[in-house]
Amino acid sequence: MLKINPTQLQSDLDALNQFGHNAATGGMNRVAYNEADMQARRWFDAQMRELGLTVRIDAAGNSIGTYAGSQNLPPIALGSHTDTVPEGGKYDGTLGVTAALACVRALKEANIRLQHPIEVINFTAEEATMGGGTFGSLAMAIGLPTGYADKPAWDGRPVHAHLSAAGIDPAGTRAAKRAVGSVAAYFELHIEQGGNLIGEGKDIGIVEGIVGIRRYLLAFDGDANHAGTTPMHLRNDALVKAAPIIHAVRDLALKHSIVATIGSMSVKPGASNVIPGRVDVVAEMRSLKGSVLDAAEHDLQNITESLGGSYARMSIKEEMICDEQLQQALVMACGELCLSHRYLPSGAGHDAMCMAAICPSVMLFVPSVGGISHSPKEFTSLEDCVNGANVMLGSLLHIDAQLS
Ligand SMILES: [Zn+2]
Fold this sequence. Notes:
With 404 residues, the chain is an alpha/beta fold. The chain has 12 helices and 15 strands. The protein has 2 domains: 6-210 and 319-402, Aminopeptidase (3-Layer(aba) Sandwich); 212-317, Alpha-Beta Plaits (2-Layer Sandwich), CATH 3.30.70.360. A hairpin with a 5-residue loop joins β1 (54-57) and β2 (63-67). α1 (6-16) packs antiparallel against α3 (94-109) and α10 packs across α12. The longest helix has 21 residues, at 382-402. The radius of gyration is 23 Å and the shape is elongated. 47% of the residues are buried.
Protein backbone atom coordinates (compact mmCIF):
# COMPACT_ATOMS: atom_id res chain seq x y z
CA MET A 1 0.00 0.00 0.00
CA LEU A 2 1.31 3.43 -0.96
CA LYS A 3 2.47 5.48 2.02
CA ILE A 4 4.09 8.85 2.62
CA ASN A 5 7.68 9.28 3.82
CA PRO A 6 7.54 10.07 7.59
CA THR A 7 11.12 11.39 7.85
CA GLN A 8 10.52 13.82 5.00
CA LEU A 9 7.24 15.00 6.54
CA GLN A 10 8.98 15.72 9.85
CA SER A 11 11.78 17.56 8.10
CA ASP A 12 9.30 19.67 6.08
CA LEU A 13 7.39 20.55 9.27
CA ASP A 14 10.65 21.51 10.99
CA ALA A 15 11.83 23.57 8.03
CA LEU A 16 8.56 25.50 7.76
CA ASN A 17 8.48 26.11 11.49
CA GLN A 18 11.80 27.89 11.41
CA PHE A 19 9.92 30.83 9.90
CA GLY A 20 8.40 33.03 12.59
CA HIS A 21 9.60 30.88 15.48
CA ASN A 22 9.95 32.76 18.78
CA ALA A 23 12.75 30.92 20.58
CA ALA A 24 11.79 32.41 23.95
CA THR A 25 8.17 31.18 23.94
CA GLY A 26 8.14 28.45 21.30
CA GLY A 27 5.29 30.33 19.59
CA MET A 28 4.91 30.68 15.83
CA ASN A 29 4.48 34.18 14.42
CA ARG A 30 3.65 33.84 10.76
CA VAL A 31 0.86 36.38 10.91
CA ALA A 32 -0.50 36.83 7.38
CA TYR A 33 1.79 38.95 5.16
CA ASN A 34 4.45 39.59 7.78
CA GLU A 35 8.02 38.83 6.75
CA ALA A 36 8.07 35.34 8.23
CA ASP A 37 4.77 34.45 6.56
CA MET A 38 6.01 35.61 3.15
CA GLN A 39 9.33 33.77 3.58
CA ALA A 40 7.49 30.59 4.54
CA ARG A 41 5.21 30.91 1.52
CA ARG A 42 8.12 31.34 -0.86
CA TRP A 43 9.92 28.40 0.79
CA PHE A 44 6.86 26.23 0.29
CA ASP A 45 6.51 27.34 -3.36
CA ALA A 46 10.14 26.32 -3.89
CA GLN A 47 9.49 22.86 -2.38
CA MET A 48 6.58 22.35 -4.75
CA ARG A 49 8.69 23.40 -7.74
CA GLU A 50 11.50 21.13 -6.64
CA LEU A 51 9.04 18.26 -6.69
CA GLY A 52 8.18 19.14 -10.27
CA LEU A 53 4.84 20.83 -9.66
CA THR A 54 3.77 23.79 -11.78
CA VAL A 55 3.27 26.61 -9.31
CA ARG A 56 1.11 29.67 -9.78
CA ILE A 57 0.13 32.39 -7.34
CA ASP A 58 -3.40 33.66 -7.87
CA ALA A 59 -4.71 37.21 -7.55
CA ALA A 60 -5.48 36.74 -3.84
CA GLY A 61 -1.99 35.43 -3.06
CA ASN A 62 -2.90 31.72 -2.82
CA SER A 63 -0.15 29.35 -4.00
CA ILE A 64 -1.34 26.50 -6.20
CA GLY A 65 1.03 23.69 -7.24
CA THR A 66 -0.19 21.24 -9.87
CA TYR A 67 0.94 17.65 -10.40
CA ALA A 68 -0.34 16.76 -13.86
CA GLY A 69 -2.86 13.96 -14.35
CA SER A 70 -3.16 11.48 -17.20
CA GLN A 71 -6.63 12.65 -18.27
CA ASN A 72 -8.16 15.98 -19.11
CA LEU A 73 -10.11 16.28 -15.85
CA PRO A 74 -10.60 18.99 -13.22
CA PRO A 75 -8.04 18.74 -10.41
CA ILE A 76 -8.43 17.15 -7.00
CA ALA A 77 -7.10 19.69 -4.50
CA LEU A 78 -5.36 19.10 -1.15
CA GLY A 79 -4.72 22.15 0.95
CA SER A 80 -4.57 24.26 4.07
CA HIS A 81 -2.54 27.28 5.17
CA THR A 82 0.87 28.31 6.53
CA ASP A 83 -0.11 31.53 8.32
CA THR A 84 -0.62 31.45 12.09
CA VAL A 85 -2.19 33.56 14.81
CA PRO A 86 0.35 35.60 16.82
CA GLU A 87 2.17 33.12 19.12
CA GLY A 88 0.42 30.20 17.44
CA GLY A 89 1.41 26.56 17.15
CA LYS A 90 3.39 24.38 14.77
CA TYR A 91 0.59 22.21 13.33
CA ASP A 92 -2.52 24.30 12.65
CA GLY A 93 -2.52 24.64 8.85
CA THR A 94 1.13 23.68 8.56
CA LEU A 95 0.33 19.98 8.83
CA GLY A 96 -2.28 20.21 6.06
CA VAL A 97 0.06 21.70 3.46
CA THR A 98 3.12 19.60 4.32
CA ALA A 99 0.96 16.44 4.29
CA ALA A 100 -0.46 17.47 0.90
CA LEU A 101 3.08 17.81 -0.39
CA ALA A 102 3.93 14.41 1.14
CA CYS A 103 1.05 12.77 -0.75
CA VAL A 104 2.24 14.12 -4.09
CA ARG A 105 5.82 13.16 -3.23
CA ALA A 106 4.69 9.57 -2.58
CA LEU A 107 2.92 9.45 -5.95
CA LYS A 108 5.89 10.93 -7.77
CA GLU A 109 8.43 8.60 -6.17
CA ALA A 110 6.28 5.58 -6.98
CA ASN A 111 5.93 6.87 -10.54
CA ILE A 112 2.17 7.05 -10.24
CA ARG A 113 0.20 9.52 -12.26
CA LEU A 114 -3.46 9.73 -11.31
CA GLN A 115 -6.21 10.42 -13.82
CA HIS A 116 -6.95 13.79 -12.22
CA PRO A 117 -4.33 16.50 -11.82
CA ILE A 118 -3.55 16.97 -8.11
CA GLU A 119 -3.30 20.47 -6.72
CA VAL A 120 -1.51 21.41 -3.52
CA ILE A 121 -2.98 24.70 -2.29
CA ASN A 122 -1.39 26.91 0.35
CA PHE A 123 -4.21 29.36 1.08
CA THR A 124 -3.33 32.84 2.18
CA ALA A 125 -4.45 34.51 5.46
CA GLU A 126 -6.64 31.72 6.83
CA GLU A 127 -6.48 32.96 10.41
CA ALA A 128 -8.81 35.81 11.31
CA THR A 129 -6.17 38.51 10.97
CA MET A 130 -7.42 40.29 7.82
CA GLY A 131 -10.76 41.58 9.09
CA GLY A 132 -12.10 38.00 9.17
CA GLY A 133 -10.81 34.50 8.52
CA THR A 134 -10.26 32.29 5.42
CA PHE A 135 -9.32 35.28 3.24
CA GLY A 136 -7.69 33.26 0.43
CA SER A 137 -10.26 30.49 0.15
CA LEU A 138 -13.07 33.03 0.35
CA ALA A 139 -11.57 34.86 -2.64
CA MET A 140 -11.08 31.58 -4.53
CA ALA A 141 -14.47 30.00 -3.91
CA ILE A 142 -16.99 32.66 -2.97
CA GLY A 143 -15.62 36.16 -3.48
CA LEU A 144 -14.67 38.74 -0.87
CA PRO A 145 -17.42 40.99 0.52
CA THR A 146 -17.51 44.58 -0.72
CA GLY A 147 -15.54 46.97 1.43
CA TYR A 148 -13.32 44.21 2.83
CA ALA A 149 -10.11 46.07 1.91
CA ASP A 150 -10.97 49.03 4.13
CA LYS A 151 -11.63 46.90 7.21
CA PRO A 152 -9.02 47.05 9.97
CA ALA A 153 -6.62 44.12 10.06
CA TRP A 154 -5.39 42.58 13.34
CA ASP A 155 -2.97 45.48 13.95
CA GLY A 156 -5.46 48.25 13.19
CA ARG A 157 -4.01 49.07 9.76
CA PRO A 158 -6.45 48.63 6.86
CA VAL A 159 -6.42 45.27 5.07
CA HIS A 160 -5.44 46.93 1.77
CA ALA A 161 -2.17 48.19 3.28
CA HIS A 162 -1.16 44.61 4.14
CA LEU A 163 -2.20 43.29 0.73
CA SER A 164 -0.35 45.98 -1.21
CA ALA A 165 2.81 45.39 0.82
CA ALA A 166 2.56 41.67 -0.07
CA GLY A 167 2.22 42.50 -3.77
CA ILE A 168 -1.51 41.74 -3.94
CA ASP A 169 -3.73 44.27 -5.72
CA PRO A 170 -6.73 44.78 -3.39
CA ALA A 171 -8.88 45.76 -6.37
CA GLY A 172 -7.93 42.68 -8.38
CA THR A 173 -8.72 39.79 -6.02
CA ARG A 174 -11.87 38.94 -7.99
CA ALA A 175 -9.63 37.29 -10.59
CA ALA A 176 -8.85 34.56 -8.03
CA LYS A 177 -12.45 33.28 -8.16
CA ARG A 178 -12.82 29.79 -9.59
CA ALA A 179 -16.00 28.45 -11.15
CA VAL A 180 -18.31 25.91 -9.53
CA GLY A 181 -17.21 22.46 -10.72
CA SER A 182 -13.75 23.60 -11.83
CA VAL A 183 -12.27 21.53 -8.97
CA ALA A 184 -13.26 17.84 -8.69
CA ALA A 185 -12.82 17.51 -4.91
CA TYR A 186 -11.07 19.14 -1.96
CA PHE A 187 -9.39 17.40 0.97
CA GLU A 188 -8.01 19.14 4.06
CA LEU A 189 -6.07 17.42 6.82
CA HIS A 190 -6.01 19.43 10.05
CA ILE A 191 -5.33 18.96 13.74
CA GLU A 192 -8.54 18.55 15.73
CA GLN A 193 -8.05 21.60 17.98
CA GLY A 194 -10.25 19.83 20.53
CA GLY A 195 -10.00 16.86 22.84
CA ASN A 196 -12.39 14.28 21.33
CA LEU A 197 -9.91 12.07 19.48
CA ILE A 198 -7.19 12.13 22.10
CA GLY A 199 -9.79 11.53 24.84
CA GLU A 200 -11.20 8.47 23.12
CA GLY A 201 -7.92 7.13 21.79
CA LYS A 202 -9.12 7.38 18.17
CA ASP A 203 -6.63 7.84 15.32
CA ILE A 204 -8.64 9.78 12.77
CA GLY A 205 -11.62 12.14 12.88
CA ILE A 206 -13.86 12.10 9.81
CA VAL A 207 -15.36 15.57 9.75
CA GLU A 208 -19.11 15.57 9.07
CA GLY A 209 -19.20 19.29 8.52
CA ILE A 210 -18.31 22.68 9.89
CA VAL A 211 -20.84 24.17 12.26
CA GLY A 212 -22.98 27.15 11.37
CA ILE A 213 -22.35 30.17 13.60
CA ARG A 214 -25.02 32.71 14.49
CA ARG A 215 -24.51 35.76 16.69
CA TYR A 216 -27.14 37.95 18.31
CA LEU A 217 -27.22 41.28 20.08
CA LEU A 218 -29.63 41.21 23.03
CA ALA A 219 -30.17 44.67 24.51
CA PHE A 220 -31.77 45.48 27.85
CA ASP A 221 -32.70 49.05 28.75
CA GLY A 222 -33.17 50.44 32.25
CA ASP A 223 -32.74 53.82 33.91
CA ALA A 224 -29.27 54.89 35.00
CA ASN A 225 -29.49 56.54 38.39
CA HIS A 226 -27.55 57.16 41.59
CA ALA A 227 -26.60 53.90 43.30
CA GLY A 228 -26.74 55.47 46.75
CA THR A 229 -29.87 57.59 46.71
CA THR A 230 -32.29 55.49 44.63
CA PRO A 231 -34.25 53.06 46.83
CA MET A 232 -34.46 49.45 45.66
CA HIS A 233 -38.18 49.53 44.86
CA LEU A 234 -37.80 52.53 42.57
CA ARG A 235 -35.05 51.12 40.35
CA ASN A 236 -35.16 50.02 36.74
CA ASP A 237 -31.86 48.14 36.65
CA ALA A 238 -30.92 46.92 33.15
CA LEU A 239 -28.47 44.34 34.46
CA VAL A 240 -31.02 42.77 36.82
CA LYS A 241 -33.40 42.57 33.84
CA ALA A 242 -30.71 40.92 31.73
CA ALA A 243 -29.42 38.50 34.37
CA PRO A 244 -31.77 35.55 33.64
CA ILE A 245 -30.61 35.47 30.00
CA ILE A 246 -27.30 33.93 31.08
CA HIS A 247 -28.91 30.76 32.42
CA ALA A 248 -31.53 30.81 29.69
CA VAL A 249 -28.92 30.62 26.93
CA ARG A 250 -27.17 27.74 28.69
CA ASP A 251 -30.51 25.89 29.11
CA LEU A 252 -31.46 26.56 25.51
CA ALA A 253 -28.18 24.98 24.34
CA LEU A 254 -28.84 21.86 26.43
CA LYS A 255 -32.45 21.63 25.19
CA HIS A 256 -31.44 21.77 21.51
CA SER A 257 -28.15 19.82 21.87
CA ILE A 258 -26.09 22.67 20.45
CA VAL A 259 -23.38 24.88 21.93
CA ALA A 260 -24.31 28.42 22.90
CA THR A 261 -22.26 31.06 24.67
CA ILE A 262 -22.53 34.54 26.04
CA GLY A 263 -18.96 35.70 25.61
CA SER A 264 -19.47 39.42 25.74
CA MET A 265 -21.61 41.68 27.87
CA SER A 266 -21.31 45.42 28.27
CA VAL A 267 -22.84 47.30 31.18
CA LYS A 268 -23.43 51.03 30.66
CA PRO A 269 -22.48 53.49 31.91
CA GLY A 270 -20.28 50.97 33.75
CA ALA A 271 -19.54 52.80 37.00
CA SER A 272 -19.72 51.24 40.44
CA ASN A 273 -21.94 54.00 41.79
CA VAL A 274 -24.43 54.10 38.92
CA ILE A 275 -27.40 51.74 38.41
CA PRO A 276 -26.95 50.13 34.96
CA GLY A 277 -28.99 51.93 32.32
CA ARG A 278 -28.24 49.60 29.45
CA VAL A 279 -26.80 46.13 28.97
CA ASP A 280 -25.73 44.75 25.60
CA VAL A 281 -25.30 40.98 25.51
CA VAL A 282 -23.74 39.11 22.60
CA ALA A 283 -24.97 35.52 22.38
CA GLU A 284 -23.55 32.97 19.96
CA MET A 285 -24.94 29.57 18.88
CA ARG A 286 -23.24 26.86 16.82
CA SER A 287 -24.54 23.64 15.28
CA LEU A 288 -24.22 21.52 12.15
CA LYS A 289 -28.00 21.59 11.70
CA GLY A 290 -29.53 24.78 10.36
CA SER A 291 -33.05 23.67 11.30
CA VAL A 292 -31.97 23.19 14.94
CA LEU A 293 -30.40 26.64 14.95
CA ASP A 294 -33.66 28.04 13.54
CA ALA A 295 -35.60 26.52 16.44
CA ALA A 296 -33.06 27.69 19.03
CA GLU A 297 -33.09 31.16 17.51
CA HIS A 298 -36.89 31.27 17.82
CA ASP A 299 -36.59 30.36 21.53
CA LEU A 300 -33.86 32.94 22.08
CA GLN A 301 -36.05 35.70 20.64
CA ASN A 302 -39.04 34.67 22.81
CA ILE A 303 -36.97 34.48 25.99
CA THR A 304 -35.25 37.82 25.36
CA GLU A 305 -38.51 39.61 24.64
CA SER A 306 -40.24 38.03 27.64
CA LEU A 307 -37.45 39.50 29.80
CA GLY A 308 -38.14 42.94 28.32
CA GLY A 309 -35.09 42.99 26.07
CA SER A 310 -34.73 43.51 22.34
CA TYR A 311 -33.30 40.96 19.97
CA ALA A 312 -31.31 41.40 16.74
CA ARG A 313 -29.32 38.96 14.62
CA MET A 314 -25.78 40.29 14.13
CA SER A 315 -24.28 37.70 11.79
CA ILE A 316 -24.87 34.29 10.34
CA LYS A 317 -22.33 31.85 8.94
CA GLU A 318 -23.99 28.93 7.23
CA GLU A 319 -23.04 25.41 8.25
CA MET A 320 -21.03 23.35 5.74
CA ILE A 321 -21.71 19.64 5.28
CA CYS A 322 -18.81 17.45 4.14
CA ASP A 323 -19.34 15.39 1.01
CA GLU A 324 -20.53 11.85 1.77
CA GLN A 325 -18.57 10.10 -0.98
CA LEU A 326 -15.35 11.75 0.21
CA GLN A 327 -16.15 10.79 3.81
CA GLN A 328 -16.63 7.18 2.66
CA ALA A 329 -13.26 7.25 0.89
CA LEU A 330 -11.62 8.40 4.15
CA VAL A 331 -13.34 5.60 6.09
CA MET A 332 -12.15 3.06 3.52
CA ALA A 333 -8.56 4.31 3.79
CA CYS A 334 -8.73 4.12 7.62
CA GLY A 335 -9.80 0.47 7.29
CA GLU A 336 -6.96 -0.35 4.90
CA LEU A 337 -4.45 1.25 7.26
CA CYS A 338 -6.01 -0.44 10.35
CA LEU A 339 -6.63 2.96 11.94
CA SER A 340 -9.59 3.68 14.21
CA HIS A 341 -11.90 6.58 13.40
CA ARG A 342 -14.93 8.47 14.58
CA TYR A 343 -17.19 11.05 12.96
CA LEU A 344 -17.22 14.54 14.45
CA PRO A 345 -18.18 18.10 13.55
CA SER A 346 -15.69 20.93 13.35
CA GLY A 347 -16.46 23.77 15.74
CA ALA A 348 -13.98 26.06 14.01
CA GLY A 349 -13.94 27.49 10.50
CA HIS A 350 -11.45 26.25 7.88
CA ASP A 351 -10.63 26.77 4.21
CA ALA A 352 -12.74 23.67 3.40
CA MET A 353 -15.81 25.66 4.46
CA CYS A 354 -15.29 28.02 1.51
CA MET A 355 -14.14 25.36 -0.97
CA ALA A 356 -17.44 23.50 -0.44
CA ALA A 357 -19.05 26.31 -2.48
CA ILE A 358 -17.30 25.13 -5.66
CA CYS A 359 -16.61 21.41 -5.16
CA PRO A 360 -17.31 18.37 -2.96
CA SER A 361 -15.14 18.92 0.11
CA VAL A 362 -14.09 16.99 3.18
CA MET A 363 -11.80 17.32 6.19
CA LEU A 364 -10.03 14.81 8.38
CA PHE A 365 -8.65 15.48 11.84
CA VAL A 366 -5.77 13.98 13.79
CA PRO A 367 -5.51 14.16 17.61
CA SER A 368 -4.32 17.34 19.36
CA VAL A 369 -2.59 16.58 22.65
CA GLY A 370 -4.59 18.23 25.45
CA GLY A 371 -7.00 19.60 22.84
CA ILE A 372 -4.79 22.70 22.71
CA SER A 373 -4.33 24.93 19.64
CA HIS A 374 -3.52 28.54 18.73
CA SER A 375 -0.81 28.21 21.37
CA PRO A 376 2.89 27.31 21.52
CA LYS A 377 1.71 24.20 23.41
CA GLU A 378 -0.08 22.84 20.33
CA PHE A 379 1.24 19.31 19.70
CA THR A 380 0.42 16.32 17.52
CA SER A 381 2.76 13.30 17.46
CA LEU A 382 4.60 12.48 14.24
CA GLU A 383 2.82 9.14 14.19
CA ASP A 384 -0.57 10.86 14.14
CA CYS A 385 0.59 13.36 11.49
CA VAL A 386 1.78 10.45 9.32
CA ASN A 387 -1.47 8.52 9.88
CA GLY A 388 -3.48 11.51 8.73
CA ALA A 389 -1.35 12.01 5.62
CA ASN A 390 -1.60 8.30 4.73
CA VAL A 391 -5.38 8.33 5.09
CA MET A 392 -5.55 11.40 2.83
CA LEU A 393 -3.33 9.64 0.27
CA GLY A 394 -5.35 6.41 0.39
CA SER A 395 -8.65 8.20 -0.03
CA LEU A 396 -7.22 10.30 -2.85
CA LEU A 397 -6.50 7.10 -4.81
CA HIS A 398 -10.08 5.88 -4.26
CA ILE A 399 -11.62 9.19 -5.28
CA ASP A 400 -9.43 9.48 -8.36
CA ALA A 401 -10.81 6.14 -9.56
CA GLN A 402 -14.42 6.85 -8.51
CA LEU A 403 -14.75 10.32 -10.03
CA SER A 404 -13.35 9.61 -13.46
ZN1 LIG B 1 -6.07 26.08 10.51
